[in-house]
Amino acid sequence: MITGQDASAELARIDALHIALTQLVLEGGDLEHIAAEVARVLGDGVLFTSTDGREQAAALSPSLRLLLATSGLVDPTGRVRVERIGTQESTQGLAVGAGQVRMLRVVAGGTDLGRLVYVRADDPVTDADVHALERAAAVAALLITREQAVTAVEGKYQGDFLRDVFLGRAGDGGYVAEHAAGFGWALERPVVVVSAEIDPPADDEETVSSAQSRMWQARFSAAWSQVSHDLDPAIPTADFSSEVVTLLPVVEGDDEPVAGNGVVRRVVTAVAGDRGGPATAGVAAGDSRWG
């Protein structure tokens, strides 16, 4: 039985967590810091993922990662199967062993930004814990919104540069390589250029709204960016509104039946892991070892 004193203590804990998280963001903290603080206060494990379950930050022990995997909540690419976990509208969550997994949407201004996944190994998640997680999701939404605004500006600049590279008007090889290095990109190596786009609706399907199309494109682009970064942070990738262009490195021996077949297949499989919709990828071999 929960007494008034217990309820007051829980509210104080939730308020203290909210204040601590807000302070972290104001001091320049990221999702990793938020996850670590939530895990410290509530115990057990916390993950932030994209809307389709790609891990973005976590404070999760190896034993809890194993618990998720053995419960069928992680696919072969490492994506968390968020579609199998009930959201906060579900009062039960998902049982895993003697514990429970709960998931909350991270939302701002009606825009779905991601998922907060909380893993407890030994006991059910309480209502008080859910209220604390709701505060954490709200703070995370503010942080993600701020980061997305910065990323949009950077992405536009990077996309313009990459387009100029393809058109041969970005400058000489030395300048291109140096400028790319400023983005953290490696262009002085053999690559395959992959152009991927979401397939249009079939003739018997309804035309989607512009807002829905933009949301799908943003999710598609984010998936390519994250999967590519996980493979190699120096892989260039850019969103050109209707397509995503990625320059995947070709390693020695990856040439059957064509150069880069293995790396392209690996990345395409990972991007398609959430079955978020059909897409087409075109591939061209290239060598960007300039200078």
Entry keywords:
CdaR-like_regulators; 5-stranded antiparallel sheet; CdaR GGDEF-like domain-containing protein; 2 domains; 291 residues; Beta-Lactamase; globular; alpha+beta; CdaR_GGDEF; 7 helices; 4-stranded antiparallel sheet; Alpha-Beta Plaits
Structural commentary:
The protein has 291 residues and is of the alpha+beta class. The chain has 2 domains: 4-147, Beta-Lactamase; 171-287, 2-Layer Sandwich (Alpha-Beta Plaits). Helix content is 44%, strand content 21%. The chain has 7 helices and 9 strands. The strands form 2 sheets. The protein has a 5-stranded antiparallel sheet, with helices on both faces. It has a 4-stranded antiparallel sheet with strand order 7-8-6-9. Strand 3 and strand 4 (99-108) form a beta hairpin.
Quote the distance from N terminus to C terminus: 73 Å
Low-confidence stretches: 274-278, 284-291
Q: What Rg is obtained from the alpha carbons, in whole angstroms? A: 22 Å
Strand order of the largest sheet: 2-1-5-4-3
Domain count: 2
CATH architecture assignment of the largest domain: 2-Layer Sandwich
Total strand segments:
9
Domain CdaR GGDEF-like: 175-283
Pfam family, one: GGDEF_2
InterPro entries: CdaR-like_regulators (IPR051448), CdaR_GGDEF (IPR041522)
Protein name: CdaR GGDEF-like domain-containing protein
